[in-house]
Design brief:
With about 325 residues, the protein is an alpha+beta fold. It is built from three helices and 19 strands. The protein has one domain: Beta-galactosidase, Chain A, domain 5 (Distorted Sandwich), CATH 2.70.98.90. The strands form three sheets. It has an eight-stranded antiparallel beta sheet with strand order 1-6-7-8-9-19-16-15, covered by helices on one side. It has an eight-stranded mixed beta sheet with strand order 5-10-18-17-13-14-11-12. Strands 2-3-4 form a three-stranded antiparallel beta sheet, with no helix packed on it. The radius of gyration is 22 Å and the shape is globular.
Amino acid sequence: MIARRMEDETMRIPVLMIVLLLGLAVSRCAFGGGERTNGATHVRVAAGDLDAVFVDNDAFGDHRAGYNGIASLKHVKEPRTLFVPQYAGFNLEHVFGGDELADLFEPRKHPMTIEKRSDSTVVLHQSPTPLSAVESTTTFRVREPHYIDIEFDCVAHRLGFFRHGYLGLFWASYINEPEDRSIHFLGRDEAGGELGWIAAFSETHGVKSTHRHIEDRKDLFFADNFNATLANHFSEYRYAEPFYYGRFNGMVFIYMWDRSEGIRFSQSPTGGGNKNPAWDFQFIVPEPVAGTHYGFRSCLVYKPFVSTDDVLAEYRRWKGSLSKKGEEKG
């Protein structure tokens, strides 16, 4: 009897192992084949000169809940993180359609999942949000020596929230006490004139906070009680190319997009605190169709500042690389 019982137990062990392995395989497939974070709220990626921490909407350490995106970005030449430690960069914070936002920071409050798909790639996914019903996926890839490539995709599953002919999304990046709180871009003022470098600074939160493209003549509806005020207060400047940069402790942080259509630059002098500006942007989708995917490509550059000519060269190289791959949109 004892021998038979031992034989049964030895047969059970390999069967249990097979069941466990099959369960693990199914779990990985259900999560897109990447590495599950097993309940973790953040993922660290180091490549080239960059060390980045990506985060969902949960809190960890001193980092506050709701500030999804890039919790920390460091460079081998600059030990301080570019972003305010409690907050984030590339933080998806608003979905809007022109009416007052009953839930002002809806994308910050609805849960996200975070997945590390490779040593260099992290994916944030948010299921349809309760009010706006927008589902989104953001893919980050850290690339040597100092780049973060980003692909954003969204789909509105219902259109009741978007009653005025457009869908708007808003991202913020809270900068960690830079000496210069301005953003810099190629453009001109509303009156026309020659193109040149503009150092744009909003003296007060929500005043002259958004800069549109030279050809952006869309007159979007905003209700009188619209409360995401950075999005609907315009400056006298127009940008010419879809990129801008800011300075931080001898470094330069460059935002670049694959299109100008739908992209609006925004900023606040104190979005992240008294000395912490917000360097932001919007993505506007006119006449959205339910169930249709919309998105863009972006690239972040973080490296020692050389010159404005070097910034422009970075943008032209990246734009050229998109054209060569046949992947440029817009």
